[in-house]
Amino acid sequence: MFSLTPYLVHRGCGQSFLIFAKSRIPPAQGMTIPRLELIAALISSGAIAYVHRHLQPLQLSENCPRILRSDSKVVLQWIANPGNHGRFVDNRHTEIRNNKLVCRYVPADDNLADAVSRRCSPRELLHHPLWWKGPLWLCKDPSEWPKRK
User: Fold this and answer.
1) Could you tell me which InterPro entries the record lists for this protein (predicted)?
2) Can you spell out the DSSP letters for 3-39?
3) Lowest-confidence region among 15-24, 34-43, 114-123
């Protein structure tokens, strides 16, 4: 299962909010973990574009960076370095890049979208403050965000 959790960050008041969450069950066979992570990144990029489009009439999206975070270093490499990775990867790479996102690494422990795939129950998520607000560093200056190691 893979999931996405877009957050809206209000830097002025130092708060972030979960907008929605979405999960999908992957095909039964034939997909490597990096390809599944790439599909998750593709779905996430579409969700980010969707949120951005719907914030525009409210003038909330001006000067608002669209950041895709993944804990998959392979996927981040594929996105950062277009090339001959095969048709499957190249087609999804093109779709992701068309959404004009900044792609960043997130440590696996801070990747709250994975909470769903780790068998976290709805009751646990309901009372999980990080699920609703995101990792603590999300409201900090981007220079203080986790770096890829």
Assistant:
1) Retrotrans_Pao
2) EE--EEEETTTTEEEE---EEEPPPSSS--HHHHHHH
3) 114-123
Q: Report the distance separating Cα 42 and Cα 28, nearest Å.
A: 19
For residue range 67-110, list pLDDT tens digits in order.
899 999 999 999 998 878 888 898 898 889 888 888 899 888 88
C-alpha 84/C-alpha 112 separation (Å) is 31
Confidence band of 122 (pLDDT split at 50, 70, 90): confident
What are 76-84's contacts with CB under 8 Å, separation 24+? 76/103, 76/104, 76/105, 76/148, 78/34, 78/38, 79/41, 79/103
The dihedral through the CA atoms of 96, 101, 104, 110 has a sign that is: negative
Other Cβ atoms within 10 Å of 104 Cβ, number: 16
Q: What's the whole-number average pLDDT of the chain?
A: 84
Specify the amino acid at residue 103. Answer: C
Residue in this structure with the two tokens 């095909």, named with its chain if needed = 27
Indicate left, alpha or beta for 100 from its phi (over 0: left) and psi (-120 to 50: alpha). left
Q: Which residues pair with 68 in a beta bridge?
A: 103
Residue 15: strand pairing partners: 10
